């Protein structure tokens, strides 16, 4: 329970990796602000479950990560309702798969806003409090696509490379304030985000669903297995520990060997 008395904001935590990270931080005693879209009743069930299972406070803010003012207001809301933002996990993200010449301009703008700019706005708003308290943990969910590219993912690959750069810059700026800033870069994790891109990848590559899973997704990962959300969450928790106090500016891969190739 090493995060007892700490407060964490996890963006995009109504589903997938973010929900697993929020739950794992709560299991270590942190109070949590969850964020993300979804059916109101389902979100409330998740929020109440985190509180009941872990004996922490869990509040919800539905800020849209493509809207800078809503992001700044979300950090303020966490500071008001929880008391501080000690851990910030920038995790919200979406994907869109298309050849570059057909890539919808609005999809490019949306992915850059949600997958990259939202982290800037949240870090910008949370940094004064972290600096003043001389403790903080910023964890950014990047991707193997922060290190290498794949065709048909122009906006996503660009945003994730940018997120890795932002994470390093922040690490340098906050290094003497007890605040670390790191990226986690998973390979393919079986979540709705991956499931939803299969039909478009089938179209873009003229493949069946099985071919996309085996010949596009798992072919990238030498272990031939998907990463699990719990494995990603365990790394996020570790980065919040005292043992990880000297890890900052790192981009830690969890990709079954993908980027070693
Ligand atoms: P997911 O679709 O299960 O979850 C995405 C979350 O982001 C949801 O809670 C959703 O409501 C939220 N979200 C989307 N748009 C939002 C917006 N405008 N404002 C607020 N919240 C918004 O996906 P996931 O796979 O858990 O992805 C989480 C992160 O992990 C993303 O940044 C993704 O790029 C990254 N990632 C995923 C994989 C993978 O294989 N699944 C691999 C590497 C990195």
The CATH superfamily name is NAD(P)-binding Rossmann-like Domain
Radius of gyration: 18 Å
CATH topology: Rossmann fold
Oligomer: single chain
Q: How many separate structural domains?
A: 1
The main sheet comes to: 7 strands, parallel
Q: How many beta strands in the DSSP annotation? A: 7
Bound compounds, please?
Answer: nicotinamide-adenine-dinucleotide
CATH class: Alpha Beta
**Shape field:** globular
The average pLDDT value, as a whole number, equals 97
CATH architecture: 3-Layer(aba) Sandwich
Read across the widest sheet, the strand sequence of neighbours is 3-2-1-4-5-6-7
Going by helix content, strand content and strand pairing, the class is alpha/beta
SSE arrangement, N to C: EHEHEHEHEHEHHHE
Work out the helicity level.
40-55%
Report the uncertain regions.
none
How would you summarize what this structure contains?
This protein is an alpha/beta fold and 261 residues long. The protein contains eight helices and seven strands, in the order E-H-E-H-E-H-E-H-E-H-E-H-H-H-E.
Describe the secondary-structure layout.
Layout: E1 7-10, H1 16-27, E2 31-35, H2 40-54, E3 58-61, H3 68-81, E4 87-90, H4 105-133, E5 136-141, H5 154-174, E6 179-186, H6 192-205, H7 209-217, H8 229-239, E7 251-254
Parallel strand pairs: 1-2, 1-4, 2-3, 4-5, 5-6, 6-7
Bound molecules: nicotinamide-adenine-dinucleotide.
Nicotinamide-adenine-dinucleotide is lined by residues 12-18, 35-38, 64-66, 91-94, 114-115, 141, 143, 186, 188-189, 191-194.
């Amino acid at each position: 329970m090493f995060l007892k008395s700490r407060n964490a904001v996890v963006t995009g935590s109504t589903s997938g990796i973010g929900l697993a990270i929020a739950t794992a931080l709560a299991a270590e005693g942190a109070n949590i602000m969850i964020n993300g879209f979804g059916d109101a009743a389902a979100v409330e069930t998740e929020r109440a479950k985190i509180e009941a299972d872990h004996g922490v406070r869990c509040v919800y803010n539905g800020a849209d990560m493509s809207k800078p003012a809503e992001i700044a207001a979300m950090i303020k809301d966490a500071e008001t309702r929880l008391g501080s933002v000690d851990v910030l996990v920038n995790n919200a993200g979406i994907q869109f798969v298309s050849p570059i010449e057909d890539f919808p301009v609005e999809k490019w703008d949306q992915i850059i806003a949600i997958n990259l700019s939202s982290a800037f706005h949240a870090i910008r708003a949370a940094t004064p409090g972290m600096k003043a308290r001389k403790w903080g943990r910023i964890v950014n969910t990047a991707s193997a696509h922060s290190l290498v590219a794949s065709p048909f993912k122009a906006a996503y690959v660009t945003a994730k490379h940018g997120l890795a750069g932002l994470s390093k810059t922040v690490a340098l700026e906050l290094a003497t304030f007890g605040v670390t800033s790191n990226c986690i870069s998973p390979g393919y994790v079986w979540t709705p985000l991956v499931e939803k891109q299969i039909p478009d990848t089938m179209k873009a590559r003229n493949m069946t669903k099985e071919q996309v899973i085996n010949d596009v997704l798992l072919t990238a990962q030498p272990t031939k297995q998907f990463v699990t959300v719990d494995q990603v969450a365990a790394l996020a928790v570790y980065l919040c520990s005292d043992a990880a106090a000297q890890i900052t500016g790192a981009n830690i891969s969890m990709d079954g060997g993908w980027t070693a190739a």
